[in-house]
Each structure stands twice: as C-alpha cells, then as structure tokens.
Design goal:
Elements (H helix, E strand, L loop, with lengths): L1 E6 L12 E4 L3 E3 L5 H7 L9 E3 L11 H10 L6 E5 L3 H13 L3 H8 L1 E5 L3 E4 L2 E8 L6 E8 L2 E5 L7 H7 L4 E5 L12 H10 L4 E5 L15 E3 L1
Helix pairs in contact: 2-4
Length: about 230
C-alpha cells in the first residue's frame, strides 16, 4: 500500500498544507491540498484517480477540488471521477463548484465525468469495498472510512475527537491515518496525547498522524511524504 501525503496540516497551519492523501495512485482521501502540483511532484497521474472519499465539508478538506476538476474536464477525462461522502455531499459540492465556475460548471461537470455516492453505511466504490463510521467533530457531521485494499484494512479518520467512535473505526485495521492536531486539548480535535493513547489501545495497527497545526509529534507524517506500508 502506497500512501502519498499531499498535505498534512490543520486548517490554519502556517507550517503545512491542508490535508489530502493518495492511496496506491488511484484513491484520494479528502482534498484540501493543492492537488495538481503536489500530485505532479510525487509522480502521481491526476487523471488516474478513480475515487475520492470525503470525510466532511470543511474548507480545508474540499478546496483543492475546483481546480482539480477542471484538469479532469479539459486535460484528462478518460474515466469517471466518483466522490463518496455523507448525505448531502452532491448538493454541497455542486454549490461550491457553481460558485467557482458559474454557469459553465454543468458543462465542466459533464466533461470531468463527476459522479456521487452518498449517504451509505457501506458499499463499493471504484472496486474498493468500504464501511463508514460516524465520528464526533463538534457540531460538524463527519465520517471516517474503513477501506479494504488488497486484503488489508485502511482506516481513515479525517477530523475527529478522540471518542469511542474513533476506537471503533481503527479497531482491527492494519493501518490508520488519524489526526494529532497539537499538544493542547481541543473541543473538536484529537491532541497529540490523545492520538498516542488511541494508538496504544490498538497495538496491532500502524498509526500515521496528520492534521498537525504546529510543531511535530512522534508518528506524524510530513507534507509530500510517501509511506509504503
């Protein structure tokens, strides 16, 4: 499993880009980072991404999409691009894309071959079986994913508090990508201490921490880092 971290930062980090991860050059987890230049730097074909698993609608998780979809519309539109998310994802993102591209967006959408898969507890997207887990992120609805890839389970949390739901998400996973925002407790995020406590409760899982606001902690990945697991 090849994990390419296009960005690993919290929303207003001055040290890191916003979050996005590419798995095996074809699965995208969230889309906050500048997707196109960062994919190029890591040797990833932007047109080779089949599916995006989106955790929630905060700007640092979606604002890489408008330019990326124009690439899919005008440069490489050979295959569909599927967006998986919670109920309402199509309405929410379509509003963003219309805001960005105005009356031209319906034509761009058709050229980019954008499709949606929303509101399901489990399913299969672009050949990837998945389950969703509702997570606590303050007042914001958010969900994590358990992705089944080549006989292994990748758990991806996006933004979340360190609650029982997070433990459920990562339980039995081979690899877990979860947040470790900073050294101080937060009402809506996971702190470094909490992240390490979750990892200690699941010793059979390899944890990679992202969504770092400032500084660093053991197990945190870096922008433009590629991890083979």
């Amino acid at each position: 499993m090849r994990l390419a971290f296009l960005g690993t930062g919290a929303a207003f980090s001055t040290e890191r880009y916003n979050g996005a991860v590419v798995v095996d050059d074809r699965v995208l987890l969230d889309a906050g980072a500048p997707l196109l230049p960062h994919m190029r730097r890591l040797g990833i074909d932007p047109g080779g991404i089949d599916v995006l698993f989106l955790t929630h609608f905060h700007g640092d998780h979606i604002l890489g999409l408008p330019p990326y979809l124009l690439y899919r519309a005008f440069v490489d539109h050979g295959r569909p691009f599927l967006i998986v998310g919670q109920a309402g994802v199509e309405e929410h993102l379509e509003g963003l894309f219309r805001l960005c591209w105005g009356d031209e967006w319906p034509g761009f959408r058709k050229q980019a071959r954008v499709e949606y898969d929303e509101g399901r507890d489990q399913g299969e997207a672009a050949g990837v079986p998945y389950q969703t887990v509702d997570l606590k992120h303050g007042p914001t609805p958010a969900q994590g994913y358990r992705l089944h890839l080549d006989g292994r389970i990748l758990a991806y949390a996006g933004d979340t508090q360190a609650t029982a739901e997070l433990d459920h998400l990562v339980d039995g996973a081979d690899v877990a990508i979860t947040e470790a925002t900073g050294p101080s407790d937060s009402a809506v995020h996971t702190s470094w201490e909490q992240a390490h406590a979750v990892a200690a409760r699941h010793p059979g899982t390899r944890f990679l921490f992202n969504h770092v606001f400032v500084g660093d902690t053991e197990g945190a990945v870096q922008d433009l880092e590629v991890v083979e697991v």
